[in-house]
Amino acid sequence: MSATSQAGFVTVAGHRVSTDHWIGGERLTSAERFDVITPIDGSVIAQVAAGGASEADAAVRAAHAAAPGWAAIGASGRAALLHRLAELIDQNVERLAAVECADMAMLLESLRLRVIHRAAANFRNYADLALAYEERDWHSKGTWNRVQRMPAGPAAVITPWNAPFMLSTWKVAPALAAGCPVVLKPAEWSPLSCSLLADLTAEAGFPPGVFNVLQGVGEQVGAALVSHPLLRRISFTGSPETARLIGVSAARNLVPFTGELGGKGPLIVFEDADLDAAAAKAAGQYDDAGQVCLAGTRLLVQESIRELFLERFNAAVDRHVLGDPRDARTTVSPLIHPEHLERVDGFVQRALADGQRLLRGGRRLEGLLYEPTLFEPSDNSAEIVQREVFGPVLTFQTFADEDEAVALANSTAYGLSGIVYTSSMGRADRIGRAVRAGIVWINTFLVRDLTAPFGGVGISGIGREGGNYALDFYSDLKTLQILDGSVR
Questions:
Q1: How far is CA 316 from CA 112, 209, 335, 397, in A?
Q2: Is 293 a catalytic residue?
Q3: The domain that contains 380 carries what CATH number?
Q4: Which residue among 293, 371, 388, 465 is the active-site one?
């Protein structure tokens, strides 16, 4: 193994963060390292260990070795540790928020007030759900039957660079609650807050190997991780292209795989909607620089209210403040990385070259900031309509009636989310049922019940997370059957 026990640290936003792997309860480094920049000013804030096949093997073997003991302590033992971890997250909100803000430029106030606390809630929620699980008992054909849930074994969790801490806990929490040791591979563009999560698991008293953090570039360490024969589950959030590669590796080893793969959600506004609320929510899709997979990036507005809606929408967008995410006045932060800025701007430049009508924005600003941008496409088949940009770029289209609204909403290969604004309960039910998506919000957005299923259809994903759906994914089910009268 190329890793050694020499640990490396960096100070980020006044807080000490390890830049090494966390494997088997130890900090291990690698000969190679990669730079992590802050989107705030583009400077390098860390050089993080770049793992490869040997580090991936060590992490999976550590999780494999820890699996019997983690399963044996049962749901109650695991719940106690998960609740302790949740308490530590709440106690360290300022540290976690400051590091994550520097790492990926999410608004600091949002991290402090909402996002980091949601991570703690994930651990509490899944600890309690696992405790509440009831085995199914029934009598059939002269036998007594019981369905039991067994921990599946080591799980690989691969998470995205947007909201990395919270989105990691969304996957890690159910895996640990179900009894599966975890190897977490965070995105290389924003790995630092996940390193802090390893420190908190150690402080909470998790046994060595139950939780591991494997740093590195996806094409190197990620590929080695997902192809490891000792893995029993793989959960991924990212692009459909990467998911296809992971799916091939999972299939070779017959490992169940779930993926949340982005979206191109419609935000549908009917003429009976509260226009002020709808326009404000539409303008809010630029939050986090549009780097939100659930965002309603395709504005679909009934023809009769086109001008009224645009007037309110533009007024709401004009109130956005672009700038430093540490400033409480900022509402739109920088994009994550220069490469991503080029990708976003590439979509805009191709749309312009293709003759798509630009209604507002379309320009790079200082550093990694990008103007909130709105296109009115000439054709629904345009790339700017059909492909996920993952930046502050929306499209605007009108429709005549419900049928056309649904047809437009369902006209992409994605199907992660949808948003509908209407004052009619009947219409809400009809459109909510008709839109092909894993979740549809009516007159609201990003309100989540952690027990509800979450995932996408089409190229937006495979499988479901959330509630018992996630616990079932990280479990193997067994039926115990006993002949009547044969035991006492």
A1: 24, 49, 21, 18
A2: yes
A3: 3.40.309.10
A4: 293
